[in-house]
Amino acid sequence: MLKYVVLLVILVIAAIGIIAVLMSAKRRRDYVRRPLLSPAELSFFKVLEQALGGKYRIFTKIRLADIIKVSGEVEKRERQTAFNRIQSKHVDFVLCDPDDLAVYCVIELDDRSHNAGDRIARDEFVDSALGSAEIPIARFAARRQYSTEEIAKALDELGKKQQTEKVDSMEAPVCSLCGAPMVLRTANKGEHAGKPFYGCSTFPKCKNTAQYLSLRDTKLMKSMLK
To answer: Is 11 part of any domain?
Structure first.
């Protein structure tokens, strides 16, 4: 009799085990893992680490709203709209000071999708928002291989440009249309790509622009008018 009881218990346990396995196999998974970086982003990340040599810490996939915020100068009724425009946007890489994690610059890796109309508008907004917050941005075209020398040179030039802009911003004009201060920006596309210009700090609300004159050019013009 005891034999049959033991056998029955074993059969019950086995049946429960089989049912559990079958239920587990049929269970739907609502979420699965995904890579943090795409193959192109990972390739760039590795070369970027070498190019920086530990000078900055690299953070990836950072939400725009985590590195900039809506200015107190924005009218209260417009603040939520302004925040909504940055809360769901992310940037590819953020370089920070290794000691206090102050943001040094943002890096975007642009593939072919950035040529689409909606992406162009998105990139222009991101550039404008970061420019308003005085955070420089460097854009690199996505490709199979990258050079540490090329990346290091581009970031070095970005640093020099940032210092120049800090000096020139001391004499930045105010917008002739809305009266808001203008900020120095760089054209990313078109015939003026790579050239600096002044854009209204309230962009896209105001899209007014003004010609950029370096501090040297401004002093020269003033001396000619004397």
So the answer is: no
Residue 210 within a domain? yes
Question: Model confidence over 82-122: pLDDT tens digits?
Answer: 999 999 999 999 999 999 999 999 999 998 888 888 889 99
In the chain, the N- to C-terminal Cα span, in Å, equals 118
What integer pLDDT is reported at residue 219 of this predicted model?
45
Do β-strands 209-211 and 90-96 pair in parallel, antiparallel, or remain unpaired?
unpaired
Query: Measuring CA to CA, how many Å separate 156 from each of 96, 104, 138, 161?
Result: 15, 12, 11, 9
Strand order from edge to edge, sheet including 57-63: 57-63, 90-96, 103-110, 137-141
H-assigned helices in 53-190? 76-87, 117-132, 148-168
Domain boundaries, position 192:
39-225
Is the pLDDT higher at 24 or at 197? 197
Q: Which amino acid is at 154?
A: A
Closest CA to 158 of 80, 201, 95: 95
Instruction: Indicate the number of domains in the chain.
Output: 1
* The pLDDT of residue 171: 62
Residue 4 within a domain: no
Residue 146 within any structural domain of the chain: yes
**Per-residue three-class SS string for 21-61:** HHHHHHCCCCCCCCCCCCHHHHHHHHHHHHHHCCCCEEEEE
pLDDT tens for each residue of 139-184: 999 888 899 999 999 888 887 776 655 555 556 688 989 988 888 7
Cα 19 from chain centroid? 49
